[in-house]
């Protein structure tokens, strides 16, 4: 009945098929982690970078690698270490005796999908090498600017528990991530399935089965579709009010930037499209609010000592704001 | 043998050093003997001593700048006397416990603060910018003014229907449904809850699926701004009526 009543203004068939294919591919290897997979796909569709945070062994790196494998695009992996230099990421000028001049040798940042593993193990100097690349999709070395190819997506992982040999990511860099996805422990049933799969050696076989289901052009086209989705003006005000509240909340030392509002809208559009709608609802916004805001806000020292988390404060803020209806 | 040699060199060295020192002292004694006369020539020029001019001293003594004994009478202006009176009055009011100068400085500080405050207010500067927090702005939500328990649904629906504003009619019908569900304590109405929260609250009810469909229709029409013509509206209106009868 609904299909006849509300004919979609935007054709989401290709998008729905693509999402289904990615989910099926990831589901072959990753057990559970539904929310993580949904947000990873939403981030990919919303043209954003993603920070995966979780304790060791919860398939953060594997998830990122599998997403990259689902797309036939160039993939680079950079293992961040304390002695990593910006030139190790961006590239460096090397003297060519043959040409008798310095030639720029491209670093691993020149790719479509970049997996930055253990991002918090490199110092701020190396982290800052990513600033321009992540926001402006270009890098500048020795006065020359190099444009990075579209799509460009950084998938970074970090472990929140370990303190030894790690550095807190700069606020400017955190703000450049569309989502911070907290990868949680699997449930008991899921863990049993993981063990069964491993015991029957299914995982290795299934990992080899995963092939690219999307091309670079597909990604570009899907992203264009996402951008065209409709957002009711009152929902824009709802998003602005959520972000604004983070700046006035007494539990917070640092509020979210306008980039957070934009990220919330883009993320909500991707979630809406994945649900088969060409418009955003308040539920879509609420769904992305925590992954968008939790890494962009800073708790006041007293609230941190009380054991509250950024996600708790975001939940409190959402509870304070009336849903436009 | 080595020790004996070492001892011999130490003793010989000591004797040599002693001899050198004695030679230096004797040479110095010889130098002292040759002396020059202390005064070579006497100064025999005439010296005329200068004396103070008695006339000049008398002249200076007559000038008022040099009359130190006389105390100049203090000339206080009317303005100064007024302020002295003010400070004494304030001091008296405070029981004389605080000195006039302290009160003076406190009042000056208050006056400066008042002037700064007035300037900030006049130019409209956001003081919270200094603390890193922006000015609080109330976003004027229409819905904030509406409490589903206070809306006269019959009247509002009548007006919307008369204007053929079907989008607004569907919204009012949905809000009316939520009110009815709240009155029956089937859902816990809270302004900050999303529609999906109510869908979940009704998940165990037999009419759950109907409510899912009503929510779907409301969201497409209200948030999606989908156009609905009269026949479509009639169909939706009927589904709302059926649901409300079921939950009544």
Automatic annotation (TrEMBL), chain A:
Annotated ChlI/MoxR AAA lid domain residues: 245-317
Gene3D superfamilies for the chain: Magnesium chelatase subunit I, C-Terminal domain (1.10.8.80), P-loop containing nucleotide triphosphate hydrolases (3.40.50.300)
Organism of this sequence: Pedobacter cryotolerans
Protein name (database record): MoxR family ATPase
Keywords, ordered alphabetically: ATP-binding, Nucleotide-binding
Any one Gene Ontology molecular-function term assigned to this protein's record: ATP binding
Domain of life: Bacteria
Similarity comment text for this entry: Belongs to the MoxR family.
Residue stretches making up the ATPase AAA-3 domain: 49-179
Automatic annotation (TrEMBL), chain B:
One Pfam entry name: DUF4129
This protein's name: DUF4129 domain-containing protein
Protein-glutamine gamma-glutamyltransferase-like C-terminal domain location: 173-236
Keywords: Membrane, Signal, Transmembrane, Transmembrane helix
Organism: Pedobacter cryotolerans
Signal peptide start and end residues: 1-19
Stretches that traverse the bilayer: 102-120
